[in-house]
Specification:
This protein is of the alpha+beta class. Helices cover about 45% and strands about 15% of the residues.
Length: about 80
């Protein structure tokens, strides 16, 4: 019988590594879940995915979205004075 040798590799990352729930994102941003829901309905917030009844956001997408909000304010001259 032939044995197969596995190379010692790092253990796989948890499936949801890099993702955050809507509730947790709302807490981190200091917003309500309803605000994030309204943004999703209007397509003005960060992109998200649905897994059953739970909404998840990719952390990298949220960070990119936040950076774009900052540059949009500066470009339009609508920033806080």
């Amino acid at each position: 019988m032939t044995q197969t040798h596995r190379h010692s590799a790092a253990p796989p990352a948890p499936l949801m590594a890099g993702w955050i729930s809507r509730l947790d994102l709302a807490r981190e941003l200091g917003l309500s879940v309803d605000t994030l829901r309204r943004w999703d309905n209007r397509r003005i917030g960060p992109a998200c995915v649905r897994a059953g009844r739970t909404i998840y956001y990719r952390r990298a997408v949220v960070l990119d979205w936040l950076e774009k909000q900052e540059s949009t304010k500066r470009a339009n001259g609508k920033g806080r004075k």
